[in-house]
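Q: Can someone sanity-check these two? First one:
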Amino acid sequence: MSEGQLFLIGIVASAILYFLKLLASLKWTPSKEVVAIGLYAVSFGLAAWFSGVGVPAFPPFADAPTFVTAFLDFCGQLLAIAAPVAGMAYLIYNILLKRVFEGAAKFLKRKK
């Protein structure tokens, strides 16, 4: 990852932390699990943006049987594109998780 990408991840972590503090000031704090899921969604979006991936074109089809084949081919293409993005998202997630949970340790609820 480049220095610019790491800088942007830090800015996103600060924005998320600010949003969580805003929610806490409104007397609602999400659980750690909800925050973790949200962080992974943000991480996946950042990874897709950093990778510059696009959705492939849907293959041509003529009737129902060829549509099924085209659909399965399209799903295979999406999985091939999503695999490296998911790996990069996991790396970004680990960075965001550490930064956000260190900053929000005081006001995030634990699930009981």
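And here is the second, same format, sequence then tokens:
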Amino acid sequence: MKVNFSEGSYLKAADIPQPVVATIQAANMETIQQGEPTKVVVSFAELTKPLVLNKTNGNIIVQLYSDDTESWLGRPVEVYATTTSFQGRQVACIRVRQPQQPVAQAAPTQQPAVPVTPPPAAPVQQPVAQQYQAPVPPQPPIQAPTGDTVPFDA
């Protein structure tokens, strides 16, 4: 009988050979090891195992979607394997980030071909006739008031 102790119940780097855009389905507090504090565990619709959030991944999701785990539900994250420095050596780890590619949507269903008719042609603009403006009558010249003893052009 062969025993594989690395199977585990939670997601690990070896489970993610390529980045995966996954939708957060649930976020719960769970006790991972007896006697240790509870941790946030995130389940994804597209993955069979949940991910135990470390501080780094938790902070990334908080930056993306807020610190309210209810607001995470239905939201996508890209889950990928990489390495990190731990106790002086490089070790495999899982990270999350905002999806690099837009989330794929279902392909549109085929619609029956409908003949395309061009839009009606725009009406031809006719030159606008200038409006008639009546001529302004000339103003009478300014005259000096009557009874003035000073000549006007002095």
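A (reply): Looked at the second one. The chain has one helix and five strands. The chain has a mean pLDDT of 80.
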